[in-house]
Specification:
By secondary structure, the protein is mainly alpha-helical. It is 56% helix and 3% strand. The strands form 3 sheets. It has a two-stranded parallel ribbon. A two-stranded antiparallel sheet has the order 2-3. A hairpin with a 5-residue loop joins strand 2 and strand 3. The chain starts with 14 loop residues before the first strand and ends with a strand.
Length: 572
């Protein structure tokens, strides 16, 4: 299988030079197939077969990079560098840093130095969010193409590859689990505290005695990183990030073609899935193994749609061998396979299911054998359920109901409410999954789209939810048609997902004044995506009519062309 070139103009469409003002004004915001419901509400139409509109000024190297707008690139890059610098004092720092401890720079880790580092991180987050919103405006107005979005995202990403863990300490758990396996322990039977040392010392206390809830492929990867780094934990953090980076590369490789198959726009999908602060800060800065999961999911889905369903199922099985949640996409790829077989629908699904199970067993067994572990992973899957927070909708509903009843009966225990909420959540999740699977029985891109819906439902309806879990479904849903209002919600939710944890990895989910303030900022950012200067702070803004985004009608395309999409323009 030969992947499309990452610099091919057909893969990441570029802009026409010096497009006419009328063309710029009539640029469409969404790129769906006709009659497809956009995630943010409303019905989206089919995108015209026209290239993205963007200025072609600049030097030759800037043109090869898509002529990325300088302001969001430099603003986000500055934010990224600030988070890296601040991370050495207020991120997921080492208990004993061999470089900073007892050095002239050691003040950065303690007292006022740590407070300054925390402020620097939050300024960096704000700058990156603002840069992302500005980039989003350019994407919606078709002033930039996919290559420019990718260039900017990569510029933001490179600095955080060398940062301490940001907003998490999970990467230390990964290294400890790899070290356990390397030392001959069963990571599915014991926690990091079974092997005291530098790896275990830096694991969050909550996970010290918890067996690994990850699949054999990830244990194999963590084992290799632990072997390569020895006791050098700083190198271990960087190498673990680099080892997970193929997930991002797979996502970027699959995204253009998969987006077109699912009815979306490549620049919009890249803006949501790759340039998103959740990707840069949590997935890469935090070093979460979900990055490998989303890459394998996207690549497997595309390969299956290209007519190689066995290879697609093998790739998604690999994703499941990292995190079990990816397995919910497998029944939908079976439907993609079934659509290519002869016979009745029932016979085709039975044949594809049997073949898919065969592929799954072979690939998963190979991963398990290579990692040198047992199926003890399955009982360890219950470990994340120890997390109790309201980001899981069922858990949050149980906590909310307990709080209401607690006003009248303060001694009522909370856990029964949480347990009942989780049972109801499981029932709702099964209903959603079955309903989506039945609706996708014709296979094709629709089956992949519905797999993304179920993956997102798994993230928010499971007993435990963490911010980066949302990436499972959004890696697919980013590639479908989005309405402008839906994209505004993406901005709001993305910022909230970034800041619900503190930079040092502790959660802020019950700091209500903090969350309320962040929600106001997130709402302002969401409105700013579609309405620049919503507070009308610019000079003379209060004496002018507010600028708005209003829909206009585009003249019908010739009979030989695809019908033109509904477009938007700004008036002021």
């Amino acid at each position: 299988m030969k992947p499309p070139s990452s610099v091919d103009g057909s893969t990441l469409p570029e802009a026409l030079p010096d497009a006419a003002p009328a063309e710029r004004a009539s640029a469409s915001v969404v790129a769906p197939a006709e009659g497809v419901a956009a995630p943010g509400g409303g019905t989206a139409e089919r995108e015209p077969l026209a290239p993205e509109i963007a200025p072609a000024s600049g030097s030759a190297w800037r043109a090869r990079l898509g002529n990325p707008p300088r302001r969001p690139l430099l603003l986000g890059l500055a934010g990224s560098v600030m988070m890296v610098i601040g991370g050495y004092g207020a991120g997921g720092v080492l208990v004993r840093d061999p470089l900073l401890t007892n050095s002239p720079l050691g003040f950065w880790r303690y007292g006022h130095g740590r407070e300054l580092a925390t402020v620097l991180i939050y300024i960096g987050v704000a700058l990156m969010l603002w840069a992302w919103v500005q980039l989003g405006r350019d994407v919606l107005a078709r002033r930039v193409g996919g290559r420019a979005v990718l260039t900017i995202a990569m510029a933001w990403t490179v600095p955080v590859l060398f940062a301490p863990p940001l907003f998490t300490r999970d990467i230390f758990s990964y290294l400890a689990q790899g070290g356990l396996s390397l030392a001959g322990f069963d990571p599915y039977a014991v926690g990091p505290d079974a092997m005291p040392g530098i790896w275990t010392d830096n694991v969050h206390y909550f996970w010290q005695d918890t067996p690994a809830p990850y699949g054999p492929l990830f244990i194999l990867l963590a084992k290799a990183v632990a072997w390569a780094t020895g006791d050098n934990i700083i190198f271990g953090v960087v190498l673990m990030r680099l080892a997970l980076l193929p997930g991002l590369l797979l996502l970027v490789w699959a995204l253009p073609e998969l987006t077109r198959r699912l009815g979306g726009r490549v620049p919009v999908a890249l803006w949501i899935a790759v340039a998103n602060p959740v990707m840069v800060i949590h997935m890469i800065g935090g070093g979460h193994n979900d990055l490998l999961v989303v890459g394998l999911l996207a690549a497997g889905s595309l390969v299956a749609l290209r007519g190689k369903p066995a290879a697609g199922i093998a790739l998604v099985t690999g994703a499941m061998a990292v995190k079990a949640s990816a397995g919910v996409a497998l029944p939908f790829l079976v439907l993609v396979w079934a659509a290519r077989l002869p016979g009745t629908r029932t016979a085709r699904i039975v044949k594809a299911t049997a073949a898919g199970v065969g592929v799954f067993v072979v690939v998963f067994a190979a991963c398990t054998f290579a990692a040198g572990v047992s199926l003890g992973w399955l009982p360890a899957l219950s470990a994340p359920s120890m997390i109790v927070n309201w980001m899981s909708f069922p858990t949050g509903a149980g906590e909310f109901l307990h709080a209401l009843i607690g006003l009248a009966a303060p001694t009522v225990p909370k856990q029964p409410f949480i347990n009942v909420g989780r049972v109801i959540g499981a029932i709702v999740l099964v209903w959603i999954a079955v309903r989506q699977w039945l609706a996708a029985r014709d296979g094709g891109p629709d089956a992949v789209h519905r797999a993304g819906i179920v993956l997102l439902a798994v993230a928010v309806l499971s007993p435990a939810t963490l911010p980066w879990y949302v990436s499972w479904g959004m890696a697919i849903l980013a590639m479908v048609a989005w309405s402008p209002r839906g994209l505004a919600w993406v901005v709001f939710c993305s910022l909230m997902l970034v800041i619900v944890y503190y930079p040092n990895g502790e959660d802020a989910l019950y700091n209500w004044p903090y969350l309320a303030g962040c929600a106001l900022v997130a709402a302002l950012a969401a409105v700013s995506l579609l309405r620049p200067d919503p507070l009308r702070l610019a000079a003379g803004a209060r004496s002018r009519k507010p600028r708005e985004v209003v829909p206009i009608t585009v003249p019908a395309a010739p009979a030989a062309a695809v019908p033109a999409a509904g477009a938007e323009r700004r008036t002021g």
